[in-house]
Amino acid sequence: KALVNDEQTGNQGHPSLILTEQGVKEIRANLGSIPIFDKTLAATKQEIDAEIEQGFDVPVPKDYSGGYTHETHKKNYILMQKAGALYQILDDEKYAKFVKDMLFEYAKQYPTWPIHPKPRSYARGKLFWQCLNDSNWLVYTAQAYDCIYNYLTEEERNTLETDLFKPFADYISKENPQFFNRVHNHATWGNAAVGMIALAMDDDELLDRALNGVKDVDFDPNEKDNDGGYIRKDGQQIGFYANVNEPFSPDGYFTEGPYYQRYASYPFLIFAQALQNKKPEHKVFEFKDGVLLKSVNALLNLSDADGEFFLLNDAQKGMSYYNSSLISTVDIGYHFGGNNPGLLSIAKKQGEVTLDDAGLAVALGIKEGKEKPFVKKSIELSDGANGDEGAVGVLRSGGLELVFKYTAHGLSHGHYDKLSYALFDDGDEVVQDYGMARFVNIEQKGGGNYLKENTTWAKQTIAHNTIVQNETSQFQGKYDIGSQYHSNGYIFSVGNDSLQVASAKEENAYPGTKLHRTVVTIKDEDYDKPYVLDIMRVSSQNSNQYDLPFYFLGHIMKTNFEYSKYDVPKILGKSDGYQHLYKEASSTSNGENIQLNWLQNNKFYTYTAVTSNNNEIIFGRIGANDPEFNLRNEQTLILRKKNVNDALFVSTIESHGTYSPVSELAINAYSNIANLSVIHNSKEYTAVLIETNNDKSKVFIISNENNDKDAAHKLAINDKEYTWKGPYILIENK
Amino acid sequence: KALVNDEQTGNQGHPSLILTEQGVKEIRANLGSIPIFDKTLAATKQEIDAEIEQGFDVPVPKDYSGGYTHETHKKNYILMQKAGALYQILDDEKYAKFVKDMLFEYAKQYPTWPIHPKPRSYARGKLFWQCLNDSNWLVYTAQAYDCIYNYLTEEERNTLETDLFKPFADYISKENPQFFNRVHNHATWGNAAVGMIALAMDDDELLDRALNGVKDVDFDPNEKDNDGGYIRKDGQQIGFYANVNEPFSPDGYFTEGPYYQRYASYPFLIFAQALQNKKPEHKVFEFKDGVLLKSVNALLNLSDADGEFFLLNDAQKGMSYYNSSLISTVDIGYHFGGNNPGLLSIAKKQGEVTLDDAGLAVALGIKEGKEKPFVKKSIELSDGANGDEGAVGVLRSGGLELVFKYTAHGLSHGHYDKLSYALFDDGDEVVQDYGMARFVNIEQKGGGNYLKENTTWAKQTIAHNTIVQNETSQFQGKYDIGSQYHSNGYIFSVGNDSLQVASAKEENAYPGTKLHRTVVTIKDEDYDKPYVLDIMRVSSQNSNQYDLPFYFLGHIMKTNFEYSKYDVPKILGKSDGYQHLYKEASSTSNGENIQLNWLQNNKFYTYTAVTSNNNEIIFGRIGANDPEFNLRNEQTLILRKKNVNDALFVSTIESHGTYSPVSELAINAYSNIANLSVIHNSKEYTAVLIETNNDKSKVFIISNENNDKDAAHKLAINDKEYTWKGPYILIENK
Ligand SMILES: [Ca+2]
Ligand SMILES: [Ca+2]
Ligand SMILES: [Ca+2]
Ligand SMILES: [Mg+2]
Ligand SMILES: [Mg+2]
Ligand SMILES: [Mg+2]
Ligand SMILES: [Mg+2]
Known about the structure:
Number of helices of chain A: 17
Shape of chain A: elongated
Distance between the termini of chain A: 58 Å
Structural class of chain A: alpha+beta
Number of strands of chain A: 26
Largest sheet of chain A: 9 strands, antiparallel
Oligomer: homodimer
Bound molecules: calcium ion, magnesium ion
């Protein structure tokens, strides 16, 4: 039975944000028969009962994250939010009293607190060192207030609103427009915070501020935030709607990437849920063709087989859809997004639901056996507010997940990584994106904040599996330049499971140089796993050096080429991330294929690459100029072509075998690729011959300049004529 | 119902080795009602049916391991063994015929085969490149022959015995006494092989050869095997009983360590089982006070929380009691060793039983719900045939497992690692023993055999967490010297779960220098996890340099001391393993404690060490002089004391906190140790003061020269008098 609210009037009473009066009735009616909800409720009750027993503290703000006052205020808002929900669900006044007492303690102290003493933020808060955390506090606390609204007298409400909520909302908005009037995840939290308390207080002026920004304020347009991002662009839309409109593409891709979407999605969705419940006339879930609900699907599709998010832009490894903010994302996505049964299977893995109407809907869905697997397929997600600023393409085939990035820059968290890719195998990263140089909330490492190596290493082009020209990062490593451009998709064709193609072009990263990369997954009937074909085509007006790094993870087993390892490593370069790479060994190619066979997580992999005579092959290792051991010391292989205008890098990557340290059996330890060769390369076409050890071969041809699906092509190679329709063809020679 | 055989006559018919006539009857009677057995049987039937369908090959021997002929002959003996068991259990002649056909193919070809063409072994086989693998073949094939014995005509049996089994047994014994007449795992396989076929053929002369060796042969006493081990010692006992007697201590510890015991245990136990079944009058399981059954318990106790074996001597990481040879070890241990219900829980995890009388007993035990957890406690296992050649001490406390090694050398697989230790936490290695430099059966890496870095690195003292004097390995890294000596246990006291002490001395590794190490686990009531206290005391007649490496695994979070990281690493030394270590950073101590805080597997650890003024602190990394990337590039911290006769190294290791990349919460990220100091150190006593952050402190005092449990001690330190009884005391100052 679906929960209903009145499209005309919404929920006028309380609670009406994440819980509704009707929802509370239905939850109470179902308690004891909805296992996942009952379990979450019991755990929450146990936690809050213990906290009530112990008592709370509202300390004078003092610390950065990790410190006592920071962690205590953070804990407080979570406790209030939970206690509020418990009051509604269990109808036990001790929970309401707990929230009330804590709120009154805040209302007493808040007016006496100056700006937070720690100076590091461009927008310092009052409870916390940055307004961002103050906004977190308000998003949660508004829910608690809504839950105990009817428990309070009007006079009590007046006190709280006058002494605490209104000045609090003003502080993070009017008094910090450089924080509030942005399009950025910080501002999203700020907007949602003000919006949530506006809904709880029924304050339409404040709601308008949340939705449309603080009007008539001005601040330095050149001001930057702590991550080096510009605070505003000229003529920029502001407020919650602007924050939904700009970072989300029509496909629901969030331009900062899934790691930050995971963080941002909570305020987007919790506020949208409250707005939908209270003011359905805003039709917030229909905004921009339903982009908020599409974003849920996009986010989940940007996770690997284990649910861990792909590393796009600044992102910490290991973050996954098990993160608590994804509980509400999944539940809201289910409840307001048409009850997709695939989401139930993720909710079930999460093992927890939100204690509200959305969580009830999920719990009932699971109880009623509606769950289906959430199947992740190959998908292209456009970037840019209008969906015309490139995309992320994910090819999925036989356990492999290849994440190909041809997006816009990704705001202040973007990396200079156009046309890079990363490869996952059964949920394990095999060809990596480094992620970010930060240990979030680990105080030992730079206070848990971004380390300087994030700028000098992790964002740089050489830290990614893509072309570096003349040892200089794309866009000169400058945000002002990089944020003006985006790559462009060229082909994304995944209809045939045995042959999937993603192709994209980048023409601005290096002025005068055009990059065109095509990644293909090919399932050969004779082998267990598909393999990846990678064609990176570079053409320039000038003669350059081109480096293509390959960040394999694991232990080198064998190469088919000789190399000299230095007695002690050298440092590869001076800047743009090169200063962080040791050069451990090198070799010069003779024009034959090079092969690198390695072992990772008890699987054997081989990289096979076409070379030209005198290409340089470099074994590098991350870790130079890293005085505090901030970096992970992983390896790379760099293929370097010098003094050429044009270059073509062609390689395959196979996951072909397994090892067991228990049985000590090595199965299919070697590559199945006998030879890889370029049999044609012109402005119009590139053709690669893949010969395999089963004495078969395949030819892959791509049309470099015409991606029309219906165009007819004809090409003669070595006296053989190939004809086909569309931008590419794979011919099997048996 | 126990299976019975006649103590007087044994099982005279066939089958009588691993299956008995009575056993077969009982198995058939229980089929369908013994799930773990039924499941194993079904899987085996499916496998063998497919192989029978496909047909077999008996190729002319040609390859090393990994190659086709090697792998095929290896597969063949396993198929025959399984098919033989299926014939008995399922009573279907197609299985007998499969074994018979394959045996006749071998009987036809074997006489025509010369010595195997690959020259690498000191004892070349005929089917395989080494007699070891030929012996594997015969151990399995003898079981198959026993199973189909009654299916064959007498003439057929004569053909097989005359053309195949007898010459085969003669070849690996009489013709290769340098292989057969050893005390070594190779010889164990040889002895068992000859013994098994002797039992199958009822050949008492051959059985005597298996049990007591080939008499009246001589070979060069200075000959070494491929691992550099001596082939025989003067006046050495030979044959199966000698192989049981010498490497196993009275506690059942196998001197080569658990990795090799795992490999060796199959022939020991499978042959003992056959001998017990067929000739119970030998009372093989009573030999040496039941050492074979004790060895099962010892082996299982030398595994971590996941069942992975500790890394003692040459050992590959990841080997565990899930290895197939442990199925029979556990089943035989259960069936012949008094039906220990703890073994049933391991059998259940293994998910498989042997298809024989022992497997039936386990399956019945599980079915009848007799299973109990196999609880591993702190344990000391003596080394040496008489149990007087040192020991391995394992301290287990609150998820920590500390493996302290004060054994004899461990035959040709031994490392120069006296008084080293390794630490595991919830089954993860945290302070590591490197293990071996070998990728077993991975042909890409030196054919899957030992790499030269096993000798130059993995066996060397500096590769271990123990003292290196003057950059020279213990016993000069010479097997001839090291194998003459052993360390001696001094204290092993684990009666109090909150305070466990293992202490041992080594006085021969460096002539003129005495090493005395004491490791202690202390459970402080204020903290979640126990911590380790390590006291390494060195005293010498000469002035030396002492290095104590600490092989922490994980990422450095923070140190409490400044260090300079070099632009490019230096190489630490010239020989004895030092040539494989890069020196990445260094520091000089000021006499205060040094602390190293690191993160591994989302747990925070801290190492705290007492230093003297001007001790050198070196951050090293494995990987120098490693031209083929054979080594893992892990880190170490080395504390170096120069130009001293005596030295005292005192440190603690804590597992104190956790991190989650999903919640991004760091809990208890810092050490609880406020200060560590030596408050007394004399010839007689060493006392350490441990001050913790809860403003409490403890004093640990050890009596260095009197380990009498009843001796009374009195010691004044800083005007305070301590009196106690026994070799150590922990005093808590509250
Ligand atoms: Ca994963
Ligand atoms: Ca383990
Ligand atoms: Ca080891
Ligand atoms: Mg990146
Ligand atoms: Mg970017
Ligand atoms: Mg070792
Ligand atoms: Mg040893």
